[in-house]
Design brief:
Elements: E1 12-18, H1 24-35, E2 40-42, E3 51-58, H2 65-69, E4 73-81, E5 83-85, E6 94-97, H3 107-115, E7 119-123, E8 132-133, E9 136-137, H4 138-143, E10 153-166, E11 171-178, H5 184-194, E12 199-209, E13 212-213, H6 220-225, H7 236-240, E14 243-246, H8 252-256, E15 261-262, E16 272-277, E17 280-288, E18 291-302
Length: 307
């Protein structure tokens, strides 16, 4: 049977090094053009000013999005004090300025303050975000000059350390590892009042998404010029970072048809596992007492390239 229009036969994970000035949707469209595949999505939005890892899913591999979006993410960010913007980052319009306390330029004070961010927080997402309230998208309302009332969300900062202080520019370079749904812009915004001034995010680079790292990411120009897109795909099993359930040839039909599998695994009930056959990712299953049940089955499977 021939492929339907917009189906390339490709199925894989592209770890893209997003350049500044592009939206995540722009990157998805570039990959669609390069692959000829209409089923392309991403796992975790990056703002236009941000660079670094954008996990792009091609073909049936788009079914892996919920598992990759949930991954812990790490960033390098620059926070500038003394000015606040309407978007909480450097792309926005300055809406307030304030004097900068002397301790902002003290590296010892800065290091202690940044380290103290580790832990659980209630965070109010930026006014310019894709959060919906009553069917209205926050950034659409913000562009009209209206600010939606957005409820705080629980986030976790797992790691936080100071990389450097630029006293002349009143900037802190920081490294953060955070939970799904954390806005680094909001962390920067909230650092201002906490220090007795105002602040915004000056630059941002995503360096890690789960086990995927920026040093292994692919430039968009490389994708555009590649004669073998499959060679650029990442290992899907490594990308998920889940325990593996290796199945036999006799079990292939059960997985393809979404049937549960009897297992001898000691995994905890509710634990997710990658179902693998001869290095090919076929599905994600959930452990239940004595068996595993399907959560997502990938038609045709997913195989990684050389990355």
């Amino acid at each position: 049977m021939s492929a339907r229009r917009g189906e390339s036969g490709l199925s894989g994970i592209l770890v893209v090094d997003k350049p500044a000035g592009m939206t995540s949707h722009d990157v998805v469209n570039r990959v669609r053009r390069a692959t000829g595949e209409r089923r392309v999505g991403h796992a975790g939005t990056l703002d236009p000013m941000a660079t670094g890892i954008l996990v792009v899913l091609v073909g049936p591999a788009t079914r892996l999005a919920p598992f990759l979006t949930a991954a812990e993410k790490a960033y390098r960010a620059t926070i500038v004090f003394g000015s606040q913007t309407d978007t909480d980052d450097a792309d926005g319009r300055v809406v307030a300025t304030a004097p900068i306390p002397d301790e902002i330029c003290d590296p010892f004070f800065a290091a202690g303050t940044v380290a103290a961010l580790v832990g659980s927080h209630e965070q109010i997402p930026p006014a310019f975000s894709a959060i919906k309230r009553g069917g209205e998208v926050a950034y659409v309302a913000a562009r009209r000059g209206e600010v939606l009332e957005i409820e705080p969300r629980s986030i976790e900062i797992f790691e936080s350390r100071l990389l450097g202080v630029d006293g002349d520019r009143a900037e802190w370079d920081v490294e953060l590892a955070v939970s799904k749904g954390t806005y680094i812009r909001a962390i920067a915004r909230d650092m201002g009042p906490a220090m007795g001034t105002v602040a915004h995010l000056c630059s941002l680079r995503r360096t890690r998404s789960g086990p995927l790292r920026a040093e292994n990411a692919v430039a968009l120009d490389t994708i555009d010029s590649s004669d073998d897109i499959r060679s650029l795909f990442s290992d899907p099993v490594a990308a998920l970072g889940l325990d593996q359930l290796e199945i036999s040839s006799a079990q292939l039909n059960d997985v393809t048809n979404g049937r549960r599998l009897r297992t001898q695994s000691a995994g905890q009930p509710g634990q997710l596992v990658s179902v693998v056959h001869e290095r090919e990712l076929l599905a994600v299953y959930e452990q239940v007492d004595g068996f595993a049940k399907p959560v997502a089955v990938i038609p045709g499977g997913v195989v990684g390239g050389s990355r």
